[in-house]
Write a structure and sequence with these properties.
- With about 180 residues, the chain is α/β, with parallel strands linked by helices.
- Helices cover about 45% and strands about 15% of the residues.
- It is built from 7 helices and 8 strands, in the order E-E-H-E-E-E-H-E-E-H-E-H-H-H-H.
- The protein has helices at about 25-35, 50-65, 85-90, 110-120, 125-135, 150, 160-175, and strands at about 10, 15, 35-40, 45, 50, 70-75, 80, 105.
- A two-stranded parallel ribbon has the order 1-6.
- Helix 4 packs antiparallel against helix 5.
- The radius of gyration is 19 Å and the shape is globular.
- Mean pLDDT is about 80; it is low at about 165-179.
């Protein structure tokens, strides 16, 4: 007898935890430390960040399902916002006693593209990575919805709601210890 295998594949365009990820946490640390953030053009690329706790809920629910949920699913958060809106929202969660306005250092798209094209042969890998990351700010990371949340009856959390308490704790701890 042949066994039929029907996998569930989850695509994670933007996953964050607020402390160790290289997306949301990086934006938070960089904007807090330097009080500016580099933006490519209008940074209109759409994002729908998903918190790791939501991914954990999905995985545990899938493991506990009596009926398989086979298919290919784009796993995205509830809020869809542009990269620029995301940066401003993340910076706005810095506690008010530590808050300073964020300066957006806008680099025109055409200039970023010229820098990428001309520096491929001689620039260090970190510079090329930085330029590519800037360019991706204008690319959408939101894909057609075939949301597994509906199939397993779970609602993802909104962007940054689990993040606010952690920020308050982290910033107050840093300021109390002088770090």
């Amino acid at each position: 007898a042949y066994s039929t295998f029907h996998p569930t594949v989850l695509r994670l365009p933007l996953l964050w935890d607020g402390k160790h990820d290289k997306n949301i946490a990086f934006i938070r640390r960089f904007s807090f430390k330097y009080r500016f953030f580099p933006i490519c053009g209008k940074a209109r690329g759409l994002r729908a960040p998903l918190h790791v706790s939501d991914l954990a809920k999905v995985i545990f629910n899938l493991l506990g399902c009596s009926d398989p949920v086979p298919g290919f699913y784009n796993l995205m958060g509830l809020q869809k916002l542009s990269y620029l809106e995301m940066v401003k929202l993340i910076h706005s969660f810095i506690p008010t006693k530590n808050f300073q306005p964020l300066f957006l250092f806008v680099i025109p798209s055409f200039l970023v593209q010229i820098l990428i094209t001309t520096s491929k042969s001689f620039a260090p890998q970190k510079i090329l990575y930085f330029l590519s990351a800037l360019k991706r700010q204008e690319s959408d990371l939101v894909f057609p919805e075939n949301n597994i949340f509906d199939a397993i009856d779970i609602k993802p959390s909104k962007l940054l709601l689990p993040f606010v308490d952690m920020l308050e704790i982290e910033y107050s701890k840093n300021y109390m210890t002088g770090g």
